[in-house]
Design brief:
heterodimer, A: mainly alpha, Rna Polymerase Sigma Factor, Chain: A, about 0% strand, globular, B: about 100 residues, mainly alpha, about 65% helix
């Protein structure tokens, strides 16, 4: 349940919706257990059910079609866009993420992704699954998974770059915690 | 992406001029996730490294993409409290029994 909650929370971005998604996932798994052939890991099967439930829930809430991300939109057009304007230099990712503003900016950037790109990013880069497994979960071939992942990463990179976090005090909270 | 070092007419460029055209940078941009994930052949990796050595903007770009991926990978995972876990388990069981 913890695994599914973590995934659901990362997909939905809010605890209540995540709990609804976990509930929906386990009920669908309960109903469909006879169809589980055992040729995939049970976690892959649960991720698949959760992903489908999430897309269904999204369709119920919003009717607008998801937009496609084009590589062209991620080409920097000005000098400041090549680097991240955030305080990460010399810090490990764990240390950098102690900056609340950075965490919020990262969450907001991921949350802004169209769902099908967000799902790939969450499964691959946050849940740590391989491209093949993500393909099984989302019904895509590996090439499509990699293409979506690349666009999703470029999107988040651009959002972080555009945002600009300059609050160095918060960035060094970890120093005070030592 | 070759913009940063582009030579200006009649003036000596302030930064090192690019050894290539914009098309090369776009070609590299398409491959960067595969490059970061170490999925490319040695020849292509070497070609990209050579390009990055000559194009400071692409070098900055790939560093920023690497940082982005690293932040995503290390983003803290939200956890369920034991009370929420028990509540959800009960709710799921109740709904399953009712159906």
């Amino acid at each position: 349940m913890d695994l599914m909650y973590r995934f659901a929370n990362r997909l939905c971005g809010e605890p209540d919706a995540a709990q609804d998604l976990v509930q929906e996932t386990f009920l669908n798994a309960y109903r469909g257990f006879k169809k589980f052939r055992g040729d995939a890991q049970i976690s892959t099967w649960l991720y698949t059910i959760a992903s489908r439930a999430c897309l269904r829930m999204r369709r119920r809430r919003k009717g607008a079609p998801e937009r496609e991300l084009s590589l062209d939109e991620f080409i920097p057009t000005s000098e400041g866009e090549f680097r991240l304007q955030i305080p990460v230099d010399g810090l490990s990712p764990e240390e950098a993420l102690q900056n609340k503003e950075l965490r919020q900016a990262l969450d907001a950037a991921i949350d802004k992704l169209p769902k099908k790109y967000k799902m790939v990013l969450v499964l691959r880069d946050m849940e740590g699954l391989g491209a093949k497994e993500v393909g099984i979960i989302m019904g895509l071939n590996e090439r499509a998974v990699k293409s979506r992942l690349h666009r999703a990463r470029l999107f988040v990179r651009r959002e972080l770059s555009a945002r600009g976090i300059t609050d160095a005090t918060d960035a060094h909270d970890h120093e005070r915690l030592k | 992406m070759a913009k940063r070092g582009a030579p200006r007419r009649g003036k000596r460029p302030a930064t090192k001029p690019p050894q290539h055209g914009k098309g090369r940078c776009l070609h590299i941009l398409r491959e960067l996730s595969a490059y970061i994930d170490d999925e490319l052949s040695g020849d292509i990796c070497q070609e990209i490294r050579r390009h990055l050595g000559a194009c400071p903007n692409c070098e900055d770009f790939v560093a920023s993409l690497r940082q982005t991926v690293s932040l995503c990978r290390h983003s803290p995972a939200p956890a369920l409290s034991s009370a929420d876990r028990a509540f959800m388990r009960e709710k799921i069981l109740q709904t399953a029994r009712a159906r």
